[in-house]
Design goal:
about 200 residues; mainly alpha; globular
């Protein structure tokens, strides 16, 4: 039997790996700003996943009920923010030189945007609730230590994916891609992010 920590690692990695708006942002920022900003982008999402995992794992039903009952407004705000980020990316110009000493985006801002985007998707908590319920965790009978181990594993597993993605993109493509291609990267990234935002809004309407 795998330990709860190892299971958490696998779950965290699996949840983070599918390409979504956060993944597109991580790739775009890794190309333009370097792996540190790309990793910070993923860290924000990993921390938000950890919070939702903790809510589900520690049996905070009042918190999960509040988020689910207000899911319409929360997701509406997240969808609008995605459209804003997509438009900003769409119209942004790549730097004259890819090898720059100072990033245009602070690490805190990079993490903060994706943390906000992930937190404004409250339906994510349902997946964590299903995982913990399936494993018999998140209640007084199993204890909180077991849930804490799994939540820690989820955060770390998610961080592994973002480190892999940001470092890989930065090392393999950042210094090889031409400036003219970066315009297309911004163009496509912006369109994809805005599309995710429109989908989120459409589900709310």
């Amino acid at each position: 039997m795998l330990s709860l920590f190892i299971k958490g690692l696998i779950i965290g990695f699996s949840i983070a790996a599918p390409v979504g708006p956060i993944g597109v942002l991580c790739i775009n920022r890794s190309l333009h700003e370097g792996w540190k900003v790309g990793l910070a982008t993923g860290i924000g999402a990993a921390l938000a996943d950890g919070i939702y995992g903790a809510i589900a794992g520690f049996g905070l039903t009042w918190m999960s009920n509040f988020l689910i009952s207000h899911a319409w407004w929360i997701k509406f705000i997240g969808g609008c923010f995605l459209i804003y980020l997509g438009a900003k990316t769409f119209f942004s110009r790549p730097p004259k030189q890819l090898v720059i000493r100072h990033s245009h985006i602070t690490l805190l801002a990079a993490a903060g945007t994706t943390f906000f985007l992930t937190v404004t998707n409250p339906m994510t908590i349902l997946s964590f609730m299903a995982v913990f319920a399936g494993l018999g965790l998140g209640n007084a009978h199993t204890g909180y230590i077991a849930a804490a181990k799994m939540v820690f594993g989820i955060i770390l597993g998610s961080l592994f994916w973002w480190l892999f993605l940001s470092t890989g993109v930065s090392l393999l493509f950042r210094n090889k891609i031409k400036k003219v291609k970066l315009y297309w990267v911004n163009f496509l990234s912006g369109l994809i992010i805005m599309a995710f935002g429109l989908i989120a809004l459409n589900w709310n309407l």
